[in-house]
Specification:
Elements: H1 4-15, E1 22-29, H2 38-61, E2 64-71, H3 82-88, E3 93-96, H4 103-111, E4 118-121, H5 138-152, E5 155-162, E6 167-171, E7 178-180, E8 190-192, E9 197-200, H6 210-213, E10 219-226, E11 229-236, E12 239-244, H7 248-259, E13 266-272, H8 283-286, E14 291-297, E15 311-315, E16 324-331, E17 336-341, E18 344-345
Parallel strand pairs: 1-2, 1-3, 3-4, 4-8
Antiparallel strand pairs: 5-6, 5-16, 6-10, 7-9, 9-13, 10-11, 11-12, 13-14, 14-15, 16-17, 17-18
Helix pairs in contact: 1-2
Length: about 350
């Protein structure tokens, strides 16, 4: 468990709260058919610890901190209630330590024209992360995330090989990369915390761009392990068109993608770069482990064109059930840069 002194230093380094500012610790709570669990209880206790640490800092530095809760949505990135959005708009800094991700609700508030707010979304955060990804040197995390962002500049495609033998081609035209570097010191910023990744939305061939740029070239397969069951998603033109598998989870996911077409959209290609992050099955941290993650569903909150009722990451770093063995970036001049090889991120390219 992180000492209070170390926690206060982390909060200062990442958020730099200032005199006169207002800070909100935001949590979601069980309700109705959304039942509590031990991890969620511990997260609320962790939120209390963070609140108390920030309160001690506030007494010395002259800012204020409050805590609020709202009924859990039950789905990652389903929009939070409007009254919670309006509450968030009143604070300079919001730290959301939730069970279900509120990221897609918080980011647009930070981007509003006259916003005063900056946000950190921490869905699924666990206390043990204070000893792993939260305990990183965030000056190093920032360096790596920004270096990956620079490598993504001018990139139009990526080729990916997976440890089960599958392959995917990602069309990355007409999109800009975003670095989540653990810097939340300035108005309008938003981070996923613990931080340490750079992401880009694949070209989605939306109505306002398909006439000029044509159809998406993203195709191939995304393999996913659900416990011992391997499910493979066939990708054509940036859409999940088929769920391949004979088990219970495959049938469940077939129904899931049939329920809402937007869920089939390939929404993100991300590269984690937090040196202290470890694979545990918790997506919040798994996606920060040095390596690849890919998401489907909503993309508007990270620069894409597709709105949806969800955004779900699949993580492929070394140590995951399925690993990305190779990822090659291709730029406009057909220069090829292997950012991932031998199942690991090439840190030598980031120094």
């Amino acid at each position: 468990m992180m000492s209070e002194k170390r926690r206060m230093k982390l909060i200062h380094d990442v958020f730099e709260p200032k005199s006169g500012e207002t800070i909100l610790i935001l949590i979601d709570v069980p309700n109705g058919d959304i039942h509590d669990n031990q991890s969620w209880k511990e997260r609320r206790e962790m939120a209390d610890d963070w609140f108390n640490s920030i309160k001690k800092m506030s007494d010395e530095l002259g800012f204020s901190v409050e805590k609020s809760e709202y009924p859990a949505t039950g789905v990652h990135n389903r929009q939070v209630p409007d009254e919670i959005k309006n509450l968030v708009r009143k604070y300079d800094l919001v730290i959301a330590m939730t069970e279900f991700s509120a990221t897609s609700s918080l980011i647009p508030i930070c981007r509003e024209k006259n916003t005063i707010t900056r946000c950190a979304s921490m869905p699924g955060v666990e206390r043990r992360m204070e000893d792993t990804s939260l305990n990183s040197d965030y000056s190093v995390v920032r360096k790596y995330a920004l270096a990956i962002k620079k490598l993504f500049d001018g990139v139009i495609a990526a080729e990916i090989d997976f440890s089960n033998g599958d392959h995917s081609f990602m069309d990355l035209r007409n999109r800009l990369p975003l670095a989540d570097s653990g810097d939340c010191r300035h108005t309008g910023q938003s981070i996923n915390f613990p931080s340490g990744e750079t992401c880009i939305v694949p070209y989605e061939a939306a109505e306002d761009e398909i006439s000029k740029f044509g159809k998406s070239k993203t195709n191939g397969f995304l393999p996913v392990k659900y416990n011992d069951e391997l499910v493979r998603y066939r990708i054509k033109k940036n859409q999940i068109t088929e769920v391949i598998g004979k088990g219970f989870k495959a049938r469940e996911m077939q129904i899931f993608f049939q329920e809402n077409k937007c869920r089939r959209n390939i929404a993100e290609l991300g590269i984690g770069c937090n040196p202290n992050a470890v694979v545990t099955g918790n997506i919040l941290e798994d996606e920060k482990v040095p390596g690849l993650h890919i998401a489907y569903g909503m993309s508007t909150h990270i620069g894409g064109k597709v709105t949806c009722d969800m955004h779900q990451d699949i993580c492929y770093p070394k140590g995951a059930p399925v690993e990305a063995t190779s990822l090659i970036l291709i730029d406009e001049k057909d220069k090829r840069t292997e950012l991932i090889n031998n199942n690991g991120l090439r840190f030598d390219l980031l120094e």
